[in-house]
Amino acid sequence: MSSKEVLLRHFYKDPAEEALGHIEVGGAELVLKGRISRDLVEEISRIKKEPEWMRLWRLRNLELFEKLPSPKWLPGVEELDLDELSHYIKPDVPKASSWEELPKEIVEAYERLGIKQAEIKFLAGLNAQLDSETVFLRVKEYVAKKGVIVTDLDTAVQKYPDLVKKYFMRIFPPEHKFAALHGALWSGGLFVYVPPGVSIEYPIEAFFLIGKAGEGNFEHSLIIADKNSHAHVIEGCAAPRLSKASFHDGMVEIYVHEGARLHFTTLQNWSSQVINFNNKRAIVEKNGYIEWIEGSIGAKVSAVYPSAFLKGEGASMESYVITFARDGHIKDGGSKAYHLAPNTRSRIVSKSISMTGGINIYRGLVRIMKGAKGSKSYTSCDSLLLDEKSKTYTYPHIQNDEPTAVIGHEASVGKLSDQLMFYLRSRGFRENEALSLIIGGFLSDVLARLPFEQAALVKAALDLEFSKIGSVG
């Protein structure tokens, strides 16, 4: 074992696993597990007291799930035995609007993850979900006074059915097997509606915690930014060390209306027993803007491809993806941009770090349709290998059917060399400081382009990841 690998294994720290340990979080009032069947789907709908249209929607998705083939492009699928998972877990605590209403052990779990402090200090709203249901929901008064709706999706189905029916799984329909599975079993998630012309100064966060081993987690977040509105939504994910694999099959749908701006930041830190698959897609109307920031740190296998359909003239998307893979874990990700209208813009920047045998895979897609005149797209994927065991693969796909469009693509792979480490040590840096300096430099151009508050969020996650090495950036 090389000195670099010894250093990485000694200093590597998984923030969520360290914070939560081996103990499963919270108890359960009800658990539904076993074969995925009509009876199971009907029971979930009955428990939630859903309207008939949602029950029928679930059953249509179940039929599609049973017919569609397993996707060969999703790594880790062969490890899953879906019939052995708990598909719905109802926590044994009622939904609370203050921390004092929750059991001490639940509050302590969120405190160790920094969620309670963030909610009190700067979040405009927080929806905290444990297993399959929301356990904490609080929205600041000034947000509600602006007419902004922030709630869990189950509540939105009951209180705002017309809004939900208009958008739910219209942006990301059940086009593959696991999207259909999600449509049949979804539970919980965030619902946000921002009225025309309204701007929310501080972020809204949804935090999802898998608390049990062998759990299937299927939350669904639906974000609607109406005309000329502006909002920032954060998605956080974590799990303790689990005795057997859990499966996350979530979905995020975002509709950006004319002139609206929506920032969506994900800090994914599932523990190393979680297989993570998250369906993320936005539709962007005229002069609208969507920004995806994906910080993918945890999970044994993770496959995430934030995408946008640039539907209106002048619509734009930016996507910044930072991924870590270690110990044979697989991070399969990238972004997709579909240019459907003139003068649309997309920028995709991916940074991956592989260490101690980790595998990073980049899959990017840019499609510019005929008639999308004057459109521009730029993609960049850079990889850093910290040892000889680690691997990285790049599969960009660019299809341009519009002769007036401009497309740029760059890619690079760098390795952590003994010579560079020796040079930095000769300049007075300790080995851990030198490693932190190299990683910080590799990520600096992405962090520098982000607004301050978003860069701070990503940097905080990186500092946790390498907390014993030293601060990043």
Describe this structure in words.
The structure is a single chain. By secondary structure, this protein is α/β, with parallel strands linked by helices. It folds into 2 domains: 16-414, no CATH class; 417-473, no CATH class. The protein is 27% helix and 37% strand. The chain contains 13 helices and 24 strands. The strands form 3 sheets. Strands 4-3-7-10-12-14-17-20-22-24 form a 10-stranded mixed sheet. Strand 3 (125-130) and strand 4 form a beta hairpin. The two termini are 28 Å apart. Mean pLDDT is 89; it is low at 1-14 and 468-473.
Map the helices and strands.
Elements: H1 3-11, H2 15-20, E1 28-33, H3 38-47, H4 52-67, E2 86-91, H5 104-112, H6 115-121, E3 125-130, E4 133-139, H7 141-145, E5 149-152, H8 153-159, H9 161-167, H10 177-185, E6 190-194, E7 204-209, E8 216-217, E9 220-225, E10 230-238, E11 246-256, E12 261-269, E13 274-284, E14 289-296, E15 301-304, E16 307-310, E17 316-326, E18 330-333, E19 336-339, E20 345-355, E21 359-368, E22 376-385, E23 391-400, E24 406-415, H11 418-426, H12 431-449, H13 452-465
Parallel strand pairs: 3-7, 6-9, 7-10, 8-11, 9-11, 10-12, 11-13, 12-14, 13-15, 13-16, 14-17, 15-18, 16-19, 17-20, 18-21, 19-21, 20-22, 21-23, 22-24
Antiparallel strand pairs: 1-2, 3-4, 5-6
Helix pairs in contact: 3-4, 4-10, 8-9
